[in-house]
Amino acid sequence: MAQKIAEKLGYGWRLLATGVSFFSFGVGGLLLWALVFPVLSLLSGNRLQKVSRGQKTVHYSFYVFIGLMHRLGVMTYDIVGLDKLNRPGQLIIANHPTLVDIVFLISRIKQASCIVKAKLWHNPFMRGPIVNAGYISNGDPEQMIAECVAWLRSGGSMIIFPEGTRSMPGKPYHFQRGAAAIALQANATVTPVTLSCYPSTLTKAEQWYQIPARRFHLTLHVGDDIALDEFAAMSPKSIGVRRFTHYLQDYFTQQRVL
Fold first, then answer.
1. Which of 128, 139, 161, 182 could lock onto 118 through a cystine, CB 3.0 to 4.6 A?
2. What is the tens place of the pLDDT at every residue in 40-92?
3. 81: alpha, beta or left? (left if phi > 0; alpha if psi -120 to 50)
4. Where is the Phospholipid/glycerol acyltransferase domain (predicted)?
5. Burial status of residue 173 (CB atoms within 10 A of its CB: 0-12, 13-18, 19 or more)
6. Top-level CATH class of 2-257?
7. Separation of alpha carbons 189 and 186, rounded Å
């Protein structure tokens, strides 16, 4: 009886803590937009310097947010291979099992761009970080690829989810070709990152308040760089893009069952 009461109290606390976490995320986004980024915009520097400051600001903000979720008892986490990240011109390709993936990744990478859905540019809670950190819209696929390639060639790093959206639990991966096309055009350093979340939560099939019976545990595993020579040598280039996309899909499928 006492154990059941303790479990219910624990569940109730985590539900409240989850709500507090999401509320804090939204308020934090508004404060960054209204107070922090206007001040940063007054500082001297070219566009790349301003984007760099914006990305660092988002990084530290997300670091604090993940720390909040951890301290409130919503989540725990492990990171393997962090030393392989934070390199210039690095394209980080990751799977996408849960809503907090991108937040968790950026909280560990000081300067990184990423691709965001075009509709989020009109979200008042997200617009500040998106615009000031120089994130790239997926509204125009050709322009998106060109901007990503240019960013990587300039020495910037990027995070891309080849699925384009969160994974469906129990369903096979279906990768889009954009990540492979960007990697090959930019001749980037490609680093795979495998994310896992147990128990499964914050997927496309769940609302934020549908929390699991216990704290979820997020694992981030950074793999070794993937050589592009074999795929870059294929002709026409579309074959290389297609083969590399299949390679990535097979890689993450294998990691999923390990």
1. 139
2. 888 888 888 999 999 999 999 999 999 999 999 999 999 999 999 999 999 99
3. left
4. 90-198
5. middle
6. alpha beta
7. 9
